[in-house]
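Running this now, will post back.
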Amino acid sequence: MSDMTPAPADPHASRPSEPVRPAIGRNVYIAPTAYVGGRVTLGDECTVMHQVVIRGDVSEITIGARVNVQDGTVIHTRGGVPLEIADDVSIGHLACVHCRSVGPFSLIGIKSTLLDNVRVGSWCIVAAGAVVTPGTVIPDGTLALGTPARVVRDVSDEERAYIRYVVENYRRLGRAHAAGAYPSWDA
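Update: finished.
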């Protein structure tokens, strides 16, 4: 099937007879303004910030451990095409992740867009504002940027250290938010 061929009909697309609820791991923070619904699995210690939508209504979405999904992001996928986001991924503010897979320790930049059937390898950076066109494969350890996104170079050791920092920082932020450290102005 080419990337532009319609996906086969999803047998789960009609209304299920019983509600389909997400499976949520341990020590997960989901902001009260986020929506996480349908066939979604969130691994342990994930952080899902405000105004995020993770919608597993047409295909299953599996998100690994210690993933952070920052404010305003949308995660969805084509009918019949499961989406897998590996452990230790950071997804920047306002990203649109509508792809097939994101490998471990990858960073998806602010306002980037990953379209149908995109596969992002491990230790990758998709730069802020990049548009990754349907079917693109971003190889392990590379930086992709632009519209349309192109691989321009390998990820540096300093960038790898930054990815680790972001993952750990959002684990701390998630715990702090869950403990009530940052109530909204009207609380």
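The helical segments are 157-178. More later if anyone needs it.
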